[in-house]
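Action item from last week, closing it out:
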Amino acid sequence: MVLQKQAAFVAGRWIAVGDRPSIVVDNPCDGSELGRVPSLGRAAVREAIEAAVVAQASWRHVTAKERSAVLRHWFSLIMAQRDALAALLTAEQGKPIGEALAEIDYAAAYVEWFAEQAKRVEGDIPASHRSDRRILVLKQPVGVVAAITPWNFPAAMVTRKLAPALAAGCAVVLKPAPQTPFSALALAYLAEQAGLPPGLLSVLTGPAEEIGWELTSHPQIRKLTFTGSTATGRSLIAATAGTVKRLSLELGGNAPFIVFEDADIDAAVDGAIESKFRNAGQTCVCPNRLLVHDMVHDAFVERLVRRVAAFVVGPGREGPDIGPLIDQHAIAKVEAHVADALSRGARLMCGGSGSLLGANYFEPTILCDVTADMLVAREETFGPVAAIMRFASDEDAIALANDTEAGLASYFYTRDMDRLFRIGEALDFGMVGVNSGAISTEVAPFGGIKQSGFGREGSRHGIEDYLDIKYLCVGPAGPKQTMPL
C-alpha cells in the first residue's frame, strides 16, 4: 500500500501533480525533496465544496451506527499502517520516530473515540411551558466544515477535526499545512479505503490565499475549524464574519510551568523535559516560561541542565532526543528570542546556537534570569528553549503566569492539596496540568481561553462543536379532517 500520495483529493478523485503547478515538500532534516503536491486554485475548492454539499445531504441521514462503523474501520486501517504512517510523518515533519509513532497512536485514538461518540449524540424533552405543548430538542450536523491544520502535528490535528465532524454527520474540506501535506493525504486515502462516501472529504493542497479565501467566504461552508497562530485566527474571524460561520479556533499559547518550593524536583524536571522539548519545542502547549520558586531554583536548574545537555540531536529517523525544526523561519525566531534574552541580561546555561548537523537544527537551550520584558517570555518561542524565571510567593507565581494574552495550557508542581485547588482555579488557562507535563488525550476537552481561541476538541464536548441545536414546539394537531367523497 503506497501511502505517500503526490496528489490532492478533490470530490472523491485523486488529482496528480502532472504538468500542473506544484508545491515542493522538503525533508527538514537535510532539505532534500520528498515529493510534490498540486498547487490548486479556487475552482478546485469550489468543486470540493459543491461535492461536499451533495455528500453531506446523504451522510447526515446515515444512522449513527453506520457512521460509527466507517470510522471504526478507518481506525483499524490507521493502526494497521502505523509504522508506515510514522515514517512518512517523520520524513516530512522531522520529529523523532518514537514521537511520530506516538502521534499516530494519538491520531488514531480520536478516530476510535468519535466512532463511539457518534452513537451518543442525544437530544432531550424538557418540561413544557403548557399542558398542550411538547418541546423536543434535537441535535443536527452543522453542515459542510472547512478545516485548516498546522504542520507540527500533521496527523493528530487532522483526525482531531475530521473524526468528530464525520461522526456528527458533517462533510469536511481540509487544507493541511503546505510543509506537511503527505500525512493528511495518507489519512484521507485510508478513510476512502474504509468506505467514506465520495465527496464527503476533500484534501486541498495549494496557496493559502487562494484556498483560504474560498473556504472563508463560501456561503455553503457552515463552520471553520483552525489550529494555528493567534494572528491568523484573528484574520479568520474577520474573514468569516460576512457569512457568519461557526468557528472553533485553537490558537497560540504561552504556557507557564510553575515549580513550587514543596514540589518533587525530580518529577518536575521529568515533566518539564517531557512537555518543553517534545517535538523540539514546537507544540502549542509546551511550557514557554518555567517559573521556579527561589528556594528550589538552583536545584531545579542544575538537574534540568544536566539532563538537557546530554540530549542527542539528529535526524528524526535515527531516534534522537531532539530533531530539526520545521524550516528556516522557525530557526530565525528561536535565534531572535535567544539573542534578545541574552542582550537583556539572561544567562545561557546550555545550548544557544545552531548545530553542525544542518540548517534546521538548534541545540536544546536553557536560559536563566529571564524577565517578563524579554521576547522569550512575551511571545511563543516554538523551539527547544527553556526560559527560567524566579518567583518568591504564590501571588507572584499567579501574577507572572497570567501576565499574557494567551490562555491555552499551564502546568504546576506541588504536593500541597490546598494549593492544588487554589492555584488550579486561579490560572487563566483552558487546561492545567498538575504534577504532569502531559495533558493531551482524546478523552479530555482540549482548548483555550482568552486569545488562545474557543471551542473544544476531544472528549464528549468535542462533537458538540459540529452540531446545531434545534427545538420543536409541538402543539395539538386538532381534529383530523375527513375529505368528502
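Closing note: The first helix runs from residue 42 to 59.
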